[in-house]
């Protein structure tokens, strides 16, 4: 006996590509607070990106920026930032809310 | 490969042998929450670490559930990991134990077998591993100190093999082997490194990758779940012959062989076979020798691999015998017989219908003595002659 369909998993174990599977739900629409980075204080340590649950922080070369289509505003990046330069700002203060985070 | 150098022989307990075996394999992370009768494994590993003999990261945990989760995480991050437990501890990590095999984490865990929770028994028995036989772990049961050390080394080869990628439990009788000091040859570090270096030539298994978003276990739903379970079962199937191969390679290099899935003793021309596992196999050897002198053609099969069940090799060795006796150190609820006996019954189509006798002995630290096994051999011998027999016997209750 063998698997007749195209295998769902590329390797042994339950590993799946996060970009294909994590960044597919409309988690951006859940967001109430938005992470805002003070670039002056950022030393590009990458801890925010490491802890981001949906792995949606993009590497910009000298800092990380959330993909707002998927950032659910959990605030873990702000909590983990050793320099405390990420602040969570209520979405109501932005006027791009209709274009970002909604599908 | 050339032959390994002869290592130093030291008189150490079974627990120490397990710790030495683990240390020689250079795990990246080891953790263990102490529990009778395996606490000494954790103590020894910590001693090695404090004496600078190993740079393994020892993580202090607040319980067995955390211990298994720590090694699971470290294994998924790509590390070589080791842990140890017994009985209650194994029960407390039950969910994580199943996660480990489902995630295909090649964890090596030694278990000093002890009666499982239910009746408050701080005593030896194999009920703890029987209660986790369907968790998807490879289970190997060993007989004595040297075999504990050697099997821990082989367990890393088996678990981390690219074709396998499954966690392994190395089991030895708690209270008996765990505390009994015997002469154990400790291989040289460079020889163990050499033996394990085969793994480095294999493709790398999937692990966490910095900078890459990976999911694990999060999408094992519907057909994906079925696919993963199937792959897990197929990997399990490959374990049987793989263990034989690793054992052969080990014996060619280190000069000690344990037979792989099962070990046969004086089975040539044997009319009846006694099947047992762990330390009881050592006592059975003595009885087999004496009964052979009396003229009873008896042989011993020591069951080493319990999961996956070595059905092919057992069928080969048991086919054509006249009767079989199975000595279990645990009970199979719902069948009123020993679990190993039940499993052997399941291969009846391969070996033919012959008398099979189940013996339950050695529960709660009671000794499986030479008179006990002599009785087993006599009864199985009589059954082979066509005399009536009792299917299940609880030896301590009939003494």
Kindly describe this structure.
The complex is a heterodimer of chains A (103) and B (399). Chain A has 103 residues and is an alpha+beta fold. Chain A has helices at residues 18-21, 47-51, 76-80, and strands at residues 15-17, 33-37, 57-59, 64-66, 86-90. Mean pLDDT of chain A is 85; it is low at 98-103. Chain B folds into two domains: 8-204 and 218-254, 3-Layer(aba) Sandwich (Rossmann fold), CATH 3.40.50.970; 262-398, Rossmann fold, CATH 3.40.50. In chain B, helix 1 packs across helix 2 (39-50). With 399 residues, chain B is an alpha/beta fold. Classes of the chains: A alpha+beta (103), B alpha/beta (399).
From the structure above, extract its key features.
heterodimer; A: 103 residues; alpha+beta; Alpha-Beta Plaits; two-stranded antiparallel sheet; 3 helices; disordered C terminus; B: 399 residues; alpha/beta; Rossmann fold; seven-stranded mixed β-sheet; six-stranded mixed β-sheet; 15 helices; 41% helix
Query: If helices are DSSP runs of H or I spanning 4 or more residues, what is the number of helices of chain B?
Result: 15
Chain-averaged pLDDT of chain A: 85
> Over the alpha carbons, how many angstroms does the gyration radius of chain A reach?
17 Å
- Quick check: average pLDDT of chain B? 95
Our estimate of the beta-strand percent of chain A is 15-25%
CATH architecture of the largest domain in chain B: 3-Layer(aba) Sandwich
Give the beta-strand count of chain B.
16
| CATH top level assignment of the largest domain in chain B | Alpha Beta
Number of helices, where a helix is a run of at least 4 consecutive DSSP H or I residues of chain A: 3
Q: How can the largest sheet of chain A be summarized?
A: 2 strands, antiparallel
The counted number of beta strands of chain A is 5
- Span between N and C termini of chain B? 52 Å
The helix/strand order of chain A is EHEHEEHE
Largest interface, with counts of residues having CB < 8 Å to the other chain, equals: A-B, 20 and 24 residues
Output the structural class of chain A.
alpha+beta
